[in-house]
Predict the 3D structure of the following.
Amino acid sequence: MPRPIARVLTLLELLQSGGIRTAAELADRLDVDERTVRRYVDHLLDLDVPVESVRGRYGGFRLATGYRMPPLMLSDDEALAVLLGLVAARRAGLTTAMGTASETAVAKIRRVLPERLGRRLDAVSGSLSFTTPPAGEAVAAESTVLLPITDAVRHHRPIAIRYTAADGRRSERTVHPYGVVAHSGKWYLTAADLTAEGDRTFRLDRITDVRTLPGSFEPPAGVDPAKRVLTGLATAPYRHEVTLRVRGTAEEIHARLPAGIAIVEEPSSVDEADAADPTVERWSRVDLRVDRLDWLPAVLASLDRPFVIDRPDELRELVVEFAERLGNLGRRGSAHL
């Protein structure tokens, strides 16, 4: 594409971002003089793009409301953001009322993208898994990290990454990427870490460089990236290791203790008579690793199910204290009636 045409399209992209842009600002962004900016504006007007000149101290150029919508121009990052939003909304069930609108929107955007970018975004949408939505502020993943990783996931290519751990230690690792998972507002890569000889989970916002390596690998059969990430988070080293037995199913327990926090193991074998009786409830084993125990008594109470604390003893004491506080508050309330 000749440079003048490319700059005219860049000018349109800048104007589409909204607001008034001064001639000096546009000249600086386009690396031309102000006279050339005005000539580029004339080119847009010749194409029926409604560019409006605003006079005065804070004047400049802006897009006016016209009878024809200006061409939609998206940068690589903008196209990625739009498609990720549509894919995430669809998988979260937020677009059900719109029928196939999200699917047709994705198809339209994909159709007008350059083939190079289209292939990369196809790799992203085909490599992502989603778990729970963010409970607080989300941590964004850089497109310069996300795009090459998802491309490697799709084509089973090994990659070299530079990673900064939570304690600040930096390392370079060679991994076989299995999938990318969006969980609770953060992005994770699950992969076989050839450097450490084991499966690992990496935060994408802590990866500063990605390099695709020659060759390919065969991922394990039936690999579930989301399950691997949740299991990795639940088994990460923490200050306290907690083991419980709770009367209930994994689904019932995970309603209060999410999979990213707790690993629930239902009994593999039960008495045939008990299995046939729907009134008989099974006891499941629950393992957690946490930095603090003070929040667990209230959560265990909210389960509203019988439970036994196998370890640690400190948690038993906290549960007893919590029960006593609740009892005292209840009696105090009745005494004031």
Notes: Confidence is low (pLDDT under 50) at residues 94-99. The radius of gyration is 28 Å. The chain is about 40% helix and 25% strand. Residues 127 and 307 are 39 Å apart (CA to CA).
